[in-house]
Amino acid sequence: MPLIEFSEKGLYCRAGGFYIDPWRPVERALITHAHSDHSRPGSKYYLAHHDSIPIMQARLGPHQFQGTAYGETTYINGVRVSFHPAGHIIGSAQIRVEYEGEVWVLSGDYKTENDGISGAFEPVKCHHFVTESTFGLPIYNWKPQAEIYRSMQEWIAKNKALGKSSIFIAYSLGKAQRLLQPLSEVSERILVHGAVYNMHMALVNAGHKLPPVERVTPDTPKEHLKGAVVIAPGSAEGTSWIRRFAPAAIGICSGWMQVRGNTRRKNADAGFALSDHADWKGLIEACTATGAEHVYATHGFQAAFSRYLTEKGIDAREVITEYGSDEDAGPTPTEEEPPQTNEEAS
């Protein structure tokens, strides 16, 4: 019996009596990060990195949460567990599980470029490595984020010259926080949708230092909307909330924008291939750095990525899970934002 089983409720450690990122309610859940496809309500006990707890509280409501630090060892029924930086979003972690000499690392989602706010990805040696494969094709090869930020800043300047607002469509947890520093360098005011504001305040109230934002409400002065720099979730596209900024240009921030034509298909004015996931090279580097003899590819291009690893001499296989992608060009409202109040919807 392997230490980690791929069960109908999620990744299960029978020896420890716990699940990692379960997609059904369970007794004890260990959570890699606070995105809602990995952190779901209904379980009795949750263990996650300290920085994930305030986000989970904001998204899941009252539950029994316990925080842990990176590198801190916890024993659960004799099984040794520790959390290590994944670099995906604030609080994201890879979970190392060890029992009777067998070591597994369950990575959740991760990226290998240090974004400056999410912690640097840390390869962890193991026998078995469970990896995402969201962008597990060679076409996905990210530019350095500094280069992408410069193109965003230049786009804002061009829009200002044309008298247009610059609206960035970005995931409310992760991507939105990354955008704040580069956007604040060229704009005194950053306006945000309620979903982005809720995540922002959960992090700020927990002690994270982020550039200030202004939540858009029906009372926001009209002069603040003209030529504004705005961050909004995908669910706001095509709504009255976004139309109030007209004339405006819309730029989508997603790894899917790497593929030529996706920007046009989304009826956007610009596409920025900024991702919170590892690209093709990053996935390969991460899997290789673990020294794992066995690799399990989950959500994404599992078949192609596991086939490539197998050809390179690594025992790799694809695993079907119920994890989704926070990189979806049009995330669902339940994934992207809490229920709207009348104020946010107006």
TrEMBL record:
Residues 324-338 have a biased composition (Acidic residues). Keywords: Exonuclease, Hydrolase, Ligase, Nuclease. It comes from the Bacteria. Residues 319-346 are annotated as: Disordered. InterPro entries: MBL, RibonucZ/Hydroxyglut_hydro, Xnuc_lig_assoc. One of its GO terms (molecular function) is ligase activity. PANTHER family: BLL1145 PROTEIN, CLEAVAGE AND POLYADENYLATION SPECIFICITY FACTOR FAMILY MEMBER. This is Ligase-associated DNA damage response exonuclease.
